UniProtKB/TrEMBL annotation:
Keywords: DNA-binding, Transcription, Transcription regulation. One of its GO terms (molecular function) is DNA-binding transcription factor activity. The lineage of its organism: Bacteria, Bacillati, Actinomycetota, Actinomycetes, Micromonosporales. GO terms for cellular component: protein-DNA complex. This is DNA-binding transcriptional regulator, LysR family. Belongs to the LysR transcriptional regulatory family. It comes from Actinoplanes regularis. Residues 2-59 form the HTH lysR-type domain. PROSITE patterns: HTH_LYSR.
């Protein structure tokens, strides 16, 4: 019988590409990952990987097993959800990952509802950039997470995850009231307040500015939109702000753009029927 934990490592390797990356994601040592995969090969009775120094490549058998392993893991997730539904209603730990604006605006009412309707749930919220959510779900550090994408930066289809739409928002250009600027094109010569590199917000800003033929001149970096709007109100630059975070701030004009942000509720494939996951989806929706 093949070990499920080792199958997860094989799927991780297919997704991440290197044993070092798998080790980092799982908080193992590379040698521990290699040993587990070698044991899996012995259990399978066939070579799964071809090794050349520190590099590995999947054999044909390894590709077949990785493909079927993903199906097995999804089926196990679905089985766990079905058993949880039979055992009881929503109960036990529910680990939720969400971006800061959602934690401030969307989650509080949902958490109150869940606490009243399902007191046996143990709710735990972690602030995470949407770019970090898929890995946290796969690695079982989260049960549910909120993902974003934009019409200029559509989200990748992740074969390990399922999701349902939550909301769609207009994105605004936030400018100081003293600045004569009404469009993205006119913001070319303005200093910008941008999110940290590697975040989706940072990538989207670069894309929309590139579409207007320029690269934004960064003056400040901030990931929380309350801070962003405070800096805009202080005349420190312009920025993109989604509708969920676009509260009125003195000294700030909010100009709607032809740009949309979409938010989805994501969970591991097969987990939609889990009572705790279903309860959160219902409370948020």
């Amino acid at each position: 019988m093949l070990d499920v934990r080792k199958l997860r490592l094989l799927c991780d390797l297919e997704r991440l590409g290197t044993i070092a990356a798998v080790a980092q994601a799982r908080s193992y040592t590379p040698s521990a990952v290699s040993q587990q995969l070698a044991t899996l090969e012995r259990e399978a009775g066939v070579a799964l990987l071809e090794r050349s120094g520190r590099r590995v490549a999947f054999t044909a058998a390894g590709q077949v097993l990785a493909r079927h392993a993903a199906t097995v893991l999804s089926a196990l997730e679905e089985t766990d959800a079905a058993l949880a539904a039979v055992r009881s209603g929503p109960a036990g730990p529910l680990r939720i990952g969400a971006f800061p604006t959602a934690v401030r605006t969307l989650l509080p009412a949902a958490l109150v509802t869940l606490g009243c309707d399902h007191p046996a749930l143990e709710l735990m919220v972690t602030e995470l950039d949407p770019a970090q959510v898929p890995a946290a779900l796969r690695e079982r550090r989260l049960d549910v997470g909120l993902l974003n994408d934009y019409d200029v930066a559509p989200g990748d289809v992740d074969p390990d995850l399922d999701s349902v739409p939550l909301l769609e928002e207009t994105v605004f250009l936030a400018v100081p009231v003293a600045v004569r600027c009404g469009t993205l094109a006119e913001a070319r010569d303005q200093p910008w307040i941008m999110a940290s590199e590697g975040t989706l917000c940072h990538d989207v800003t670069l894309r929309v500015c590139a579409a207007e033929g320029y690269r934004p001149r960064v003056r400040h970096r901030a990931d929380d939109f309350v801070t962003v709007l405070a800096l805009v109100g202080a005349g420190q630059g312009v920025s993109l702000v989604p509708e969920l975070a676009a509260s009125p701030v003195e000294g700030v004009r909010l100009l709607p753009l032809g740009l949309r942000r979409r938010t989805r509720i994501a969970y591991r494939k097969g987990a939609a029927g889990h009572p705790a996951v279903a309860a959160l989806v219902a409370a948020l929706s």
